[in-house]
Amino acid sequence: MFKSILSSKAYTLRKMILNSVFNSSTGHVATSLSCAEILTVLYMGGVLRYDASNAEWEERDRFLLSKGHAATGFYCTLAMAGFISDEIALNVSSKNSSVGVHLQSNIPGVEFTSGSLGQGLGLGCGVALAARMDRRNYLTFVLTGDGECNEGSIWEAALFAGHHKLNNLIWIIDRNYMQCSDFTENCLSLESLKEKITSFNFNVKICDGNNCNSILEALKDVRSRVSTSPLCIIAETVKGRGIPSVENDLFAHHYIPAKDKIKDIIENYFEPFI
Amino acid sequence: MLTMRDAFFYRVFEHAKKDPNIIVLTSDFSAPSFDCFRKELPNQFINTGISEQNTILVAAGLAQSGKNVFVTSIAPFITMRCFEQIRLYVGDMNLNIKIIAVGAGFSYNTAGPTHHSVEDLAILRTIPNLRILSPSCNSRVIDFATWCVNNTCPIYVRLDRMTLDELYDNINCSEDNGCYVIKKAPIMIFSTGYMVHTAIKAAQSSDIGVVDIYRIPLQIDSFLNIVSYCSKVITLEEHVFQGGLGSYICEILNDNNILLPVKRFALDFSSGFCHSYGTRDEMHSTCGIGIDQLLSYIKDLIHV
Fold first, then answer.
1. Do the domain assignments include residue B110?
2. A131 touching chain B per CB within 8 A
3. Block means of pLDDT (10 residues each) for chain B, length 304 residues?
4. How many domains are contained in chain B?
5. Domain's final residue, options B125, B159, B193
6. Is B66 within 8 Å of A130 when comparing Cβ atoms?
7. What residues of chain B lie within 8 A of the CB of A163, using their CB?
8. Would you identify the CATH topology of the domain A2-268?
9. What separation, in Å, do the N-terminal and C-terminal C-alpha atoms of chain B show?
């Protein structure tokens, strides 16, 4: 029952993302849709510990969105979780709006500015290290894209996390096999990604990143792990998920649906993914 | 006498013994003063490896979590390889990170252009919230170390690799001003770091004044007070022309409607970096900032 409620929440999030884009005619729709279930499970599936009325609560889990171009999806998630008003999430980049299409740290619930790729994992290493130094129990979650794993800074951070045995760090990769201009394997191939990351001393799991049940299963023991290694979850997703004409399309990265199509998309294409 | 690096970090170490929130990160840089941390405060010292981008990111994560973070490495590497991380997380997010760069200018003279730090002022002056401290001797270094410990703003400290003669014995010099008049005269040389010593040597044999600019941005009122009795400004720096100390001073004069002639001495890299070796002072002459060139200019100026 809970899991179908989560799928329904993901459906609501997708609609909100499209409504936000309807208002602003800007943003990155496809990448936000790609990670909609991941964000839903983290914030509405009982995974992250947070207090939306006290975003700076010291014992909160830290969530870092490294793929900052998915800010529209994240702002909508923060609105659904109660951190910010719907008005902020639905008026990205509009006149007098305090948020643009990339993530800004001046918004409650946002730990770090993001938009330049490849930064989140290293930031997460510092946050996780601080938790260990201070003997705090919070966990640090970092969501990166797969395309941003082209960046050397990702692998510098992976070396650091593995070397320092940051077992309070969870790196989730939105593995949609696409980046801005090409498929990841055509551009700068990442495979075999699981083996690569395992060799950096991570525990690695693979899940269906557009299926709430599968994501929950991958995260179910995240607070009771006995491993000394950091955890990486490769979440297999579809870029543009929910809009058949956009899914896995190379034009998906900068796709903005026409205003007169959005209502049609919401009514006809979006179905909860059970 | 201690190097600037060790003078700085021995002072930080004394504070760190009483404050576990002080964390030092280094990108595989070594020093006797670091050995104190390794031995006595191993939980407050991390060698992050040769990975400057990740070093700044880890520093940002620690600082965002309440730590007082000091990052140190060789100057060109900890400024340019990781410039974007500094721009976004140290500067824009205004985090409590101090970047302690060793090897200002031609400090690593024989190491060649890869190790010369001759663009850092131009680059880092563009970073919001970042204060630049450029000491000319160890007493300033020690003052700055304590100042860095006690303040939460982002700071870039450009240290010389060498040990420089003491200039500030028994002088109470306020950090707030950002500049100090070592010798007053109508024609003043404004300089920073190592080159302040060159300026002082030039001033010893002529009626020329010297001002040590040790913080950017400096306090504008203090600066304007100094230039109010100047008839000519000379700037001297171990840095490229573009965007350095001379540019900064020209900008202040322009923005305050002060019409003063300015002669800039800076590194002439119009045909490439300095691939000519020798002593540091010999390299200065090669690149147009030698004391011989400075004195020749002053001689002509005064005789005219």
1. yes
2. yes
3. 96 98 97 97 98 98 98 98 98 98 96 97 98 96 95 98 88 79 96 98 93 96 96 98 98 98 95 92 96 95 77
4. 2
5. B159
6. yes
7. 49
8. Rossmann fold (3.40.50)
9. 42
Query: Residues B14, B152: one domain?
Result: yes
* A127 vs B: CB within 8 A: yes
Q: Which residues span the domain enclosing B62?
A: 4-159
What is the identity of the amino acid at A72? T
Question: If you measure CA to CA, which chain B residue comes closest to A127?
Answer: B61
| Across A255-272, average pLDDT | 79
Residue B264, domain member (yes or no): yes
Tell me: do B146 and B29 sit in the same domain. yes
Residues B87 and B148 in one domain: yes
Chain A positions touching B54 (Cβ under 8 A) are 122, 125, 153, 156-157, 159-160
B167 occurs within a structural domain: no
Q: Is A113 on the interface with B (CB under 8 A)?
A: yes
Domain termination site, one of B124, B159, B194: B159
Q: Is the pLDDT of residue A1 over 60?
A: no
- Nearest residue in A to B81, CA atom: A153
Residue of A nearest to B92 (CA): A113
Cβ contact, residue pair A123, B57, below 8 Å: yes
Q: Is residue B47 part of a domain?
A: yes
Do B287 and B271 form a contact (C-beta atoms < 8 A)?
A: no
